C-alpha cells in the first residue's frame, strides 16, 4: 500500500480541526422510505413502485444503510488489497494487490473464480473492467508507473497482459468513460494525465498538472458520468481541478476549466493533499478527501474557481495511506470513507450525520470502497490481505455504540501524528507503520 508523501457553504469559524459534525448525539436523520407503503405498492403493480424503482429506493434508504453488516470475507491475496471494481452486471468483483496478482471473484458464493499475474513489477493500485466488452478487457495501473491491459476469456482464464503506457512515477488511478469501451484516462505522480485508446498503439498525454509552474503529483482521477469529456484530478496540493479533454490549452488557465478548494485551506501553511476526488451520480457534485483533514463536497455547477464547499464530513482519519472516498446509493445519498482506525464511516450526504460505522480491517486501515452498481452492497479493502463484502442484513439498525470515542481518538491521533511534508514517501510509510503499531500497543496495554 502506498503512503502519502442545511446545504450552504460553511463559515471559517466552523472549519476548525476535528469539528463535531456527524455526532452520534445529533438529531436522527429522517428516512423518507416507507417499507410498508413501498412493498404494498410493488405487490399491487404500481408503476412507480416497480421492481427497479423499489430497488433504487432500498439502496438509498437510511434504514438499510444503518443495517450494513459483513456478508462475506474473500481470502486469496498475500498482500494489501488496493483495488476493487465490480463488472457492469455486478456479478463479478476484481481485486488488485501488493502481491501483483488480480483476482476475479464470484463474490455471491464467496470464492475466487480465477486469478492471474498482472504483469506489474510493483503494488497494483487499481484494476477496472472496461465497459461494453463482456468483461473481457481489464485495465490496471501500479506503483511501477505502468498501465496495462489484461485480455480475459469467457472460460475464466487470462490470455495475457500487455503494457499500454508508462508514467514516470507511480500511477494511482484510472478513469473509465461511461460511453466508451476503448478509451480511458490515467494519472500519476509525474503530474501527467494520459488518454488511452485500446485501438491505438501509443497513449496521448493530454495535460500536465501544475501550480505556479510546479508539477503536482496526482493521486486521483475520475470522469464525469454524464459528460465523459470532463474529468477531475486531485493530488499533492489542496486543489481539486476539473479539465475538459476536448479543449485543453496550456496557455489558457493551464487547461483547467474549474478549480475547487475549501476556503480554510487557501493560502495557509496546511500540508493537506487531495487523496481522492469523485463525481456524484450525475456529475453535479464533486467529493474530495484530504489527508489529515476532512472530506468536502463541492458544487460542480459553479463556474471557474470556487473556495466554497457545500458540506464537510468529519470523524474519520485519513493519514497513513492514499485513501479513497466514494458515494453510496443510486442518487449519491451517502458518503462513505475508510479510516486509519480500521472502520468504515457512512454519512448521510445532506445532513452530514454519521448513520453507520463498522470495523472492516484488522490491520487498522481501510482504503478502498466499491459500491455495487445495482444492489445495496459495499465491498471494502485495506491493509488486510482480504476483501470484505457488506450487505444490509442486520436485524436491527446500528446504534453507533462507541462512535464518539472513536472520533475523539481519530482527532487526537491527527493532532499528534508526525508531519510527512519533508519526508520521502517510502520512508514516511515505514515511519507511519511503526508509529501506528506503537500507538496500538499502548492502547492495548491501557486496556
Describe the structure.
This protein has 447 residues and is mainly beta. The chain is built from five helices and 31 strands. It has helices at 35-43, 51-59, 62-65, 403-416, 425-446, and strands spanning 68-75, 81-86, 93-97, 101-106, 111-117, 124-129, 137-142, 146-152, 158-166, 171-176, 183-188, 192-197, 204-208, 210-211, 214-215, 218-223, 230-235, 240-244, 256-260, 274-279, 285-290, 295-299, 305-306, 311-313, 325-328, 334-338, 343-348, 354-359, 366-371, 378-382, 386-392. The strands form eight sheets. A five-stranded mixed beta sheet has the order 16-17-18-19-23, with no helix packed on it. A four-stranded antiparallel beta sheet has the order 1-31-30-29, with no helix packed on it. A hairpin with a 6-residue loop joins strand 2 and strand 3. The radius of gyration is 21 Å and the shape is globular.
Key structural traits:
447 residues, 13% helix, mainly beta
Average pLDDT across residues?
Answer: 86
**In one word, what is the shape?**
globular
Q: Give the strand line-up of the largest sheet.
A: 16-17-18-19-23
**Assembly category:** single chain
Specify the helix fraction band.
10-25%
What is the number of beta strands?
A: 31
Proportion of strand residues: 35-45%
**Uncertain parts:** 5-16
C-alpha-based Rg, rounded: 21 Å
Q: In whole angstroms, how far apart are the ends?
A: 29 Å
Largest sheet: 5 strands, mixed
Could you say which structural class the secondary elements and strand pairing correspond to? Answer: mainly beta
Helical stretch tally: 5
Amino acid at each position: 500500500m502506498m503512503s502519502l508523501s442545511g446545504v450552504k457553504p460553511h463559515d471559517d469559524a466552523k472549519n476548525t480541526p476535528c469539528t463535531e459534525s456527524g455526532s452520534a448525539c445529533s438529531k436522527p436523520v429522517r428516512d423518507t422510505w416507507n417499507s410498508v407503503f413501498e412493498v404494498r405498492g410493488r405487490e399491487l403493480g404500481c408503476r412507480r413502485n416497480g421492481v427497479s424503482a423499489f430497488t433504487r429506493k432500498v439502496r438509498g434508504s437510511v434504514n438499510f444503510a444503518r443495517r450494513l453488516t459483513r456478508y462475506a470475507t474473500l481470502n486469496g491475496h498475500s498482500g494489501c488489497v488496493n483495488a476493487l471494481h465490480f463488472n457492469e452486471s455486478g456479478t463479478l468483483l476484481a481485486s488488485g494487490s501488493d502481491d501483483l496478482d488480480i483476482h476475479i471473484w464470484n463474490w455471491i458464493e464467496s470464492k475466487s473464480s480465477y486469478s492471474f499475474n498482472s504483469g506489474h513489477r510493483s503494488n497494483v493500485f487499481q484494476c477496472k473492467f472496461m465497459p461494453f466488452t463482456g468483461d473481457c478487457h481489464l485495465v490496471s495501473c501500479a506503483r511501477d508507473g505502468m498501465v496495462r491491459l489484461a485480455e480475459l476469456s469467457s472460460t475464466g482464464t487470462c490470455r495475457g497482459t500487455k503494457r499500454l503506457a508508462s508514467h514516470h512515477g507511480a500511477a494511482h488511478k484510472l478513469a473509465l468513460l461511461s460511453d466508451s469501451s476503448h478509451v480511458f484516462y490515467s494519472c500519476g505522480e509525474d503530474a501527467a494525465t494520459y488518454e488511452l485508446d485500446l485501438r491505438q498503439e501509443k497513449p496521448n498525454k493530454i495535460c500536465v498538472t501544475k501550480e505556479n509552474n510546479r508539477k503536482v503529483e496526482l493521486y486521483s482521477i475520475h470522469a464525469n458520468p454524464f459528460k465523459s469529456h470532463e474529468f477531475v484530478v486531485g493530488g499533492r496540493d489542496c486543489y481539486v481541478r476539473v479539465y475538459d479533454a476536448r479543449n485543453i490549452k496550456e496557455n489558457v488557465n493551464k487547461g483547467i476549466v474549474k478549480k475547487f478548494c475549501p476556503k480554510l485551506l487557501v493560502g495557509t501553511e496546511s500540508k493537506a493533499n487531495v487523496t481522492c476526488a469523485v463525481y456524484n451520480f450525475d456529475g453535479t457534485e464533486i467529493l474530495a478527501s484530504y489527508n489529515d483533514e476532512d472530506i468536502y463536497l463541492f458544487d460542480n455547477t459553479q463556474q471557474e474557481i470556487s473556495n466554497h464547499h457545500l458540506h464537510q464530513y468529519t470523524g474519520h482519519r485519513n493519514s497513513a495511506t492514499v485513501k479513497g472516498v466514494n458515494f453510496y446509493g443510486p442518487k449519491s445519498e451517502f458518503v462513505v470513507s475508510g479510516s486509519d482506525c480500521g472502520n468504515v464511516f457512512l454519512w448521510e450526504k445532506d445532513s452530514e450525520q454519521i448513520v453507520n460505522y463498522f470495523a472492516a480491517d484488522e490491520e487498522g486501515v481501510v482504503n478502498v470502497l466499491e459500491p455495487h452498481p445495482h444492489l445495496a452492497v459495499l465491498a471494502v479493502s485495506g491493509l488486510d490481505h482480504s476483501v470484505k463484502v457488506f450487505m444490509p442484513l442486520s436485524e436491527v439498525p446500528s446504534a453507533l455504540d462507541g462512535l464518539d470515542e472513536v472520533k475523539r481518538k481519530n482527532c487526537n491521533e491527527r493532532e499528534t501524528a508526525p508531519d510527512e511534508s519533508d519526508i520521502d514517501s517510502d520512508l514516511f510509510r515505514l515511519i507511519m507503520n511503526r508509529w501506528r503499531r506503537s500507538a496500538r500497543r499502548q492502547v492495548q496495554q491501557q486496556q
